[in-house]
Amino acid sequence: MTSASKRALVTGGSAGLGAASVGWLQANGYEIVVLDRDRPWTGKTPVQFIRCDLASRTELDDVLPDLIAAGPYDLVLLNAGINATGKFEALDPRAHIDILRVNTEAPMVIAAALLESNACRSGGAMVFVSSLSHFTGYPGAASYAASKDALAIYARSMRKYAASRGVTLTVAFPGPLKTDHAERHSPEGADDSKRMDPDHAARLILADALAGKKSSIPGAGNRVFAVIGRVFPKPVTAVMRRLIYTRLKP
């Protein structure tokens, strides 16, 4: 890496929004470090791959020195996330724990470690990927919604500290995307025509982050939904329950 090159860390970069972000960043001259459980497919442009199952705190602690050494980073995208849908009491208790570890604990630990070790360049950006569900209820995915809410609150609380290190923090709230992950956790027969293309979402989120914006809700429809969800939380949650929860597979 030359001193003039840009460098980015993407967690969960092997699929979905993460993979789309890797593609956008590479097209814009970034060298990429991907932290994921699965090796990403990156076409002709190689990335530095660090393997880690973020559901394991032991594995995460083991790779933190490698993540720090692979920097310094101009941009960090804390994107990795998992879900589990269905009736809360019917889900394996382990699923709730894994969701909180991957979606909340891991990005919190990584962010703190990178900032404390000055592994982010001054003038750099860090992005926490929350969810549009932050603005309403998410019946049928309570642990996922809780994990993304907690992440958004943590990110906001870290802004002043990050700023002292010269790093801006952006919280992204993407809505439903056209990804395999979304398909697996959607009601059977759900129409994916209204889901956003992950490449489009990645472009919007990264543009907001590089502009230093505090939050990013990609897409006009999603921004309208966020406003309605805040103003009328109970009716919107009732609609979400009818559209999602009552149609989930048992």
UniProtKB/TrEMBL annotation:
Gene3D superfamilies: NAD(P)-binding Rossmann-like Domain
UniProt similarity note: Belongs to the short-chain dehydrogenases/reductases (SDR) family.
Positions of the UniProt region annotated as Disordered: 178-197
PROSITE patterns, per database record: ADH_SHORT
Keywords: Oxidoreductase
Keyword Oxidoreductase appears in the UniProt entry: yes
Start and end residues of each Ketoreductase domain: 6-180
Source organism of this protein record: Hoeflea alexandrii
Name of the featured protein: SDR family NAD(P)-dependent oxidoreductase
